[in-house]
Amino acid sequence: MHIVLGFLVAFVIVVLLTRSRAATRACRWREERSGNRGALRKYRCMACGAEAFTSTDGPPDTCRDPNKRG
Ligand SMILES: [Zn+2]
Questions:
Q1: I need a labelling partner for 31 at 20 to 30 A (CA). Which of 1, 20, 37, 64 fits?
Q2: Could you give the dihedral angle defined by the CA atoms of residues 30, 31, 36 and 39, in that order, rounded to the nearest 10 degrees?
């Protein structure tokens, strides 16, 4: 019975972690036309300061928080 409870707790923790990761998608990307490179468009995140290049119309849909990189 304790094992089942342990699995349940672990499952809840995983769900919470996944949700908190999804919350990092709250980046607010702004296009920086001066930084464009050919077909690549430069975007800067107003929330965490990350920079990203995309070749599509919209801004990136992920957060690239530099603090979370090694
Ligand atoms: Zn960001």
A1: 20
A2: 120
